[in-house]
Amino acid sequence: MGQAEAPFILVADDDRSTRESLVTALELEGYRASAVGDGARALEQVLATRPDAVVLDIGMPEIDGLSVCRRMRSRQDRTPVLILTARSEVSERISGLDAGADDYLSKPFSLDELLARLRALLRRSRLEEPSVALVVGDLRLDAAARRVWRGAQEVELTKTEFDLLHLLMRNAGVVLGPGSIYEEIWGYDFGPDSKNLAVYVGYLRRKLGDEGTGQLIRTVRGVGYTLRAP
Fold first, then answer.
1. pTM here?
2. How many domains is the chain partitioned into structurally?
C-alpha cells in the first residue's frame, strides 16, 4: 500500500516574513505548504488546491480574513480554518468564530502552539463519525450528516461548535472538566486561563436558543460543563 500524501496547508498572510517562516516550518514538520498574501488569492487557492487546512490572517488587503472565511462557509466549504489575529480582545476572537473559523491564535504566537492546533484540526477533520442520531430533550444531532436540530429548527454550527456539542451529547448528564474537553476537541490543554472553551459554549448556547432558564448546556462552577434535558 502506498504512503498517504502529506496534508497540504494554505497560509494566507500579508506579511511576507510570516508567510515564508510558516511555510518553512510546516515543510520541516512534513507538511506540504503554500502561501498567498491577500484574501482574494486565498479564495482562489482554496478552490484550486483544496487544502487540508487554512491558516488565515484577519488583516489582509483585497478581502480580509473574516470575509474569506464567511465566503468559504457560505459555499459549504468545511476546510478547517485557523484564524490569526494581531489583537487579543475577546471581541476579535468572537468575530473569527462567528465567521466560521474553527480556532484562533493571537499574534505573536508560539510556533509549537500553532503546530499543535493544526494537528488537532487535522485530526478532528479526519475522524469518521458514526451514523448515530443523538437526542436530548428537543435537541437532535445526526453525527453522520453533521446536522443539528432544536425542535423543528435546524441549527447551523461551525465544525468546532458541532464537535463540542457532539461531545456533550455523547456524555449527556456527565460533568466534563475543561481539561478533558480541550484534549478531546482541540487535542491540547490550553490551561486554566484560556477563555477559548467559554467562548464556544457561549456561542453554542446562543445558536441553540439555550440562554436563560432551563438551559440544556449547564455550567457546574469550578468543575466544568454538562448537557442534560431541562
1. 0.60
2. 2
